Amino acid sequence: MKYARLLLTGLIASLVLAFSLLSLWASSSGEPAVASHGSTPGQVDFVSIDMDPTGVPANTATSLGSRETCISKNVGQQFDIDITIDEVDPADKIDGFQFNLNYDNTKLKVVAVNNLMLLAAGGATIPLDFSNPVPDTDGTFLVALADFSLNSESGEGVLSRITLENVGPGVSDLTLTNVIIVDADPPVREIPVNNIQNAIVAQNVPCPTPTPTPTPVPERTAVVFIQGLGSSLSEEEVQKIIADCRDDEAFGAIIQTLQDRNDSDKYSCNNILFFSYHLGFGGDSGFLLEGEWIPDSYDCTETGKPLADSGALLRSMLEQYRDFWEERGQEVNFILVGHSLGGLIAFQELLSLIDSSFNIERVITLDSPLEGRSQIPFRLALLAQLDPCFRRLVPSEAVNEIVARADDPDIDSKNQEIVGSATQTQVITLGNKNDCVYWLGWCFRRLDVQVEPGIPPKVTLTWIPLETGKYSDNTQTQLVENAAFEALYELGPDCAGFLECKFLVGKTHTIIRTSATCEKLPAGEEISCSQKIAEFIIEGP
Known about the structure:
Layout: H1 10-22, E1 44-50, E2 70-73, E3 78-88, E4 96-102, E5 108-114, E6 127-129, E7 140-147, E8 155-166, E9 170-183, E10 189-190, E11 193-197, E12 199-203, E13 219-226, H2 235-244, H3 252-259, E14 272-274, E15 286-289, E16 292-295, H4 307-326, E17 331-339, H5 341-355, E18 359-366, H6 376-383, H7 397-407, H8 411-421, E19 426-430, E20 445-452, E21 458-465, E22 475-477, H9 483-491, H10 498-509, H11 529-539
Parallel strand pairs: 1-11, 2-12, 13-14, 13-17, 17-18, 18-19, 19-22
Antiparallel strand pairs: 1-3, 3-8, 4-7, 4-9, 5-8, 6-7, 9-10, 9-12, 15-16, 20-21
Helix pairs in contact: 3-11, 4-5, 9-10
């Protein structure tokens, strides 16, 4: 039988069998009670326990008033509860039902039951009641009723009105299990119930105060862009940021891609933040204007601060922005996007920010020296007589720290520890982890020597890219393929020409400015680096 797995007794199995036999000679042609609202064919919204049937408005056999989930009574008092249904569609009709009412028998007992409510609303009822006899004191009260008349009911109403008596003090639960609603119209079938709603009884004590459902807190996502060593932000560029939250000299193409999307409201000027290396009055590096972060201008030499000092400026910026919007009832999530040194600053500050309860959704580093760079002092010696910001390499504490990272044999495991501990944050490193912070790109590759025996032997020299890195499962490396890398590898030692290599490595390291194709795709399917990075900002890999 279809209901065999649900039925608790042979009597209920007999009920379904009787319905099946009855359907061979009779049809449900009586006038059903009309559904009052919102019924859905093929299902019932809920079956629930109402602890006060007399509440205003009161329940009737075919209508439901207010529902109480708890009632407080003294020990020795008797009181009624209703088992209600909302609601049976007229296309289904109801001819029988069953449920178990489970209670704490040290505090309650069942003293009476009336099952002729909704099922008797159509009149001329031929009831067959398989319910447990009353009084019932074992903690589980079985209710099962079938109507063998030709009248079927639908709509909302009361299945059973049950009288309980308090026998002991305290708070206890009332629950419904094994709920079955039967439509005997051929073929006999069960009507699914979507929700079961239970209740509480308080004996000699007040009802417990319900825990309020928390109101969802509106969220906003702020994308923070951090430039690298030797960058600058002029007064004119600050004015452009104020005007349209875009710096064409840095992340402009990426921001344009974000704002061209259908959900561009998410990336309005209030949600785009530019980091400033300038240490202003009170330790600030900018200010908030109507919820928009306005960075201070800075010159290239200010980017060389110790990493901890730049990290403190980043923290102050995020704190001011977060506090402003939280005071206005909005929770702030941050996505940090850092190029070169900017990515290293974000990466180094990540765990400290998380420990301070900042919600850091994602960190994206672009060509950042996470493992340091060892040959910077040699390059500085070559550039000593040039402009201090030449090729964006600034002699400074930041440079010294980058060199020290390269000399640390444990730097890789330390980076892995940061990513592994930041379980709530997705860390994405774009570009080659062996990218150089200085202009000449020898560290991009290693020399492979192949010797074929012979007289004289044939020697082939090949420059091979260094292996890319992957710190943890939630860290992605080399997700943006930079076309300039391939050109550098192919040129090898021929890249000694200053002017030629300056262009190629400049293109490589200015990934934040380029709109060049990042992936080798069929014609018409190309995607720019800016598009790719924007995708990672929005969705991750």
